[in-house]
Every structure is written in structure tokens, then in C-alpha cells.
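Pilot study result, target chain (113 residues):
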Amino acid sequence: MAHTENQTWVVERGGEVVEKMAHAGGASLSDWERLVYCLWVTDYMLRNAGDFANAEVMYPDFQTDAARLAKSLGLAVTHTTFSLSRRKLQREYFNRFEAICDEIKKAEHDVDA
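Predicted structure:
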């Protein structure tokens, strides 16, 4: 699987959100930034561990929060993806990755991030 621009974006933009959260707390994040954090956590777990085994330690509600935030931001592709069963999300994540990233990136300009 070739490295994509969106992989770089998730690492960089997700890192910015993680840094903001560390300095100013989770309450300082916009809904869009919280969604980016959910995506960053998902991506980290699947690319590094290959599954969601560490979800209970890292962020137990990453999937439900991502689905809820995507729905409130009107992001249909992202909402549908994170609404899958955990097992199906794990299987289909990489096939849907580019579309999810493109949708979330586009939404940054539509919301106050």
C-alpha cells in the first residue's frame, strides 16, 4: 500500500490536535478537531497494531464519538463508516480511508475549527 498525502495529513493535523488538547485540554477542541482526533486514534491503532485491541486504553469511545460528530457535521461518508460494527470498520477502514479524509478535510473550511 503506497503512502498517500492523506496519511501525512492525518499524522500532521492529528498531531496538532493532540498538542492543542495536551496544552489547553479536551474542552478547547471544536467538534471538527474532536473528529480529527477520533480519526487519528483509529488510524494509529490500525496502522500500528492492526486492530482495535488498544481502544480501551487509548480512547474507548472513539468510534461512537466519531459517528456522532460526523453526523452533527453533516459528513455522510464518515458517519456511515464509523457507524459500522467495530469488526467491519476494522476490515473496511483502509478501503474508505481516502474518502473519509477528503470529506473531513473539506469540512474544515466549512466549520470553525
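One observation from the pilot: The chain has one domain: 5-108. A full batch analysis is planned for the follow-on phase.
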